[in-house]
């Protein structure tokens, strides 16, 4: 048994720094092995003496053993992302399939994780399981990291005795969903970033560059073109009231984010509006259908009852229009309607999706058919995002040319006019 595992299981006291959930301190050590090779590492232990003893048992002569200090900025590592949870699920499933007990598997994953927050979370879960809780009960104490869908799938897997299979399915599901989210973010972030850069460059030109040209133009004593006068007027306003413009833009961004988070009505309005946008709207439609299909397939395959699965799926679609539709489907299914008929009634799913669901129900392979639907619409999203990127590139070039190039032309128009008069 390694020093890490032995130390973790023998802790009884508590020390003040670098605290682990089970009462351990994390120590940084350096030493030499039997061949004189320098070795170093970090691991939890009861105290420095016990760690030295464990290292000697492993044939390592310790030179320095000290408590690991806290980060200078007081941080505890990056936040826990859905990808961290997906990787944990995959690792846990692999170890359990290999015959490693769940407590030992979680301990190994925790000790090898590079994110301190994830390590702390996993050690807490392991401690709860050692105290007699099921994995579902341990995860339920962390609803932020493990959502309702994740917890219900684990519960179903534990009940059916196929937890490792369910965890493997969850990992695949989360990886696919995160890849889909990444595609959507890419489609929306790229043009927004370019527009933001163009506006920042324009502001810099108006505040710092145009005033230099204005002083030159005054020495001409000639009447300036209307376009140049407009740009100079904009520059004068920006120079005088740049703080007001900055406050308005910053306030608008903060207000938008706060309204989206706190106002259900505004969030629903935004969801509906986004679905109506050209090109982007169709990508969001396909994304919602893909997420609905894959989430329902995963939950149904794991053995979650259909009505309960639909209730879980509603919140995973990512759009209020589809969330409301899925809740209506759930209500209809709960009183005896087939899923495909309930889907037809809400009038948001394409005919192909309804028909494939009907075929899956008739064949008793609803989850298999829904997986095929998810794969089809995920590929549609991929193709649409790639096409959108190709379409946006020339449009963005035109936008940059009009905004930035327009101001440059406005500044050189008087020079061209003066050159023509001299000529």
UniProtKB/TrEMBL annotation:
Residues 88-211, 292-414 form the Type II secretion system protein GspF domain. It is found in: Cell inner membrane. Gene3D superfamilies: Type II secretion system (T2SS), domain F. InterPro entries: GspF/PilC (IPR003004), T2SS_GspF/T4SS_PilC_CS (IPR001992), T2SS_GspF_dom (IPR018076), T2SS_GspF_sf (IPR042094). It is a multi-pass membrane protein. Pfam families: T2SSF. Its main location: membrane. Keywords: Cell inner membrane, Cell membrane, Membrane, Transmembrane, Transmembrane helix, Transport. Residues 1-26 are annotated as: Disordered. The chain crosses the membrane at residues 189-210, 240-259, 396-415. The keyword Chloroplast does not apply. Residues 1-21 have a biased composition (Low complexity). PANTHER family: GENERAL SECRETION PATHWAY PROTEIN, PROTEIN TRANSPORT PROTEIN HOFC HOMOLOG. Belongs to the GSP F family. This is Type II secretion system F family protein.
């Amino acid at each position: 048994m390694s020093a890490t595992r032995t130390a973790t299981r023998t802790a009884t006291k508590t020390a003040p720094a670098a605290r682990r959930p089970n009462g351990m301190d994390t120590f940084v050590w350096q030493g030499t092995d039997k061949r004189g090779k320098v070795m170093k590492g970090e691991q939890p232990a009861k105290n420095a003496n016990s760690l030295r003893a464990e290292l000697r048992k492993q044939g390592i002569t310790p030179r320095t053993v000290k408590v690991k200090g806290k980060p200078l900025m007081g941080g505890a590592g990056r936040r826990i992302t859905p990808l961290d949870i997906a990787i944990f699920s995959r690792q846990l499933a692999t170890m359990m399939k290999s015959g490693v007990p769940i407590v030992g598997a979680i301990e190994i994953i925790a000790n090898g994780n590079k994110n301190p927050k994830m390590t702390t979370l996993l050690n807490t879960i392991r401690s709860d399981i050692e105290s007699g809780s099921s994995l579902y009960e341990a995860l339920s104490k962390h609803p932020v990291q493990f959502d309702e869908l994740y917890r219900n799938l684990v519960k179903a897997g534990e009940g059916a005795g196929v937890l490792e299979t369910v965890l493997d399915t969850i990992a695949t599901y989360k990886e696919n969903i995160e890849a889909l989210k990444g595609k959507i973010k890419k489609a929306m972030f790229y043009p927004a970033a370019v527009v933001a850069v163009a506006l920042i460059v324009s502001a810099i030109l108006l505040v710092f560059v145009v005033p230099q040209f204005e002083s030159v133009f005054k020495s001409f004593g000639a009447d300036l073109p209307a376009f140049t006068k407009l740009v100079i007027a904009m520059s004068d306003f920006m120079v005088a009231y740049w703080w007001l413009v900055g406050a308005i833009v910053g306030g608008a961004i903060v207000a938008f984010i706060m309204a989206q988070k706190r106002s259900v009505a505004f969030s629903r309005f935004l969801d509906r509006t986004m679905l109506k946008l050209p090109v982007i709207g169709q990508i969001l439609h396909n994304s919602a259908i893909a997420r609905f299909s894959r989430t329902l397939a995963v939950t149904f395959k794991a053995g979650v009852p259909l009505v309960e699965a639909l209730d879980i799926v509603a919140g995973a679609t990512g759009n209020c229009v589809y969330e409301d539709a899925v809740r209506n489907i759930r209500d209809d299914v709960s009183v005896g309607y087939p899923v495909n008929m309930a889907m037809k009634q809400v009038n948001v799913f394409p005919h192909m999706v309804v028909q494939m669901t009907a075929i899956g129900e008739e064949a008793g392979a609803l989850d298999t058919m829904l997986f095929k639907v998810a794969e089809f619409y995920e590929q549609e999203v991929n193709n649409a995002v790639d096409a959108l990127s190709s379409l946006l590139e020339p449009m963005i070039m035109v936008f940059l040319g009009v905004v930035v190039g327009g101001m440059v032309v406005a500044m050189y128009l008087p020079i061209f006019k003066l050159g023509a008069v001299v000529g």
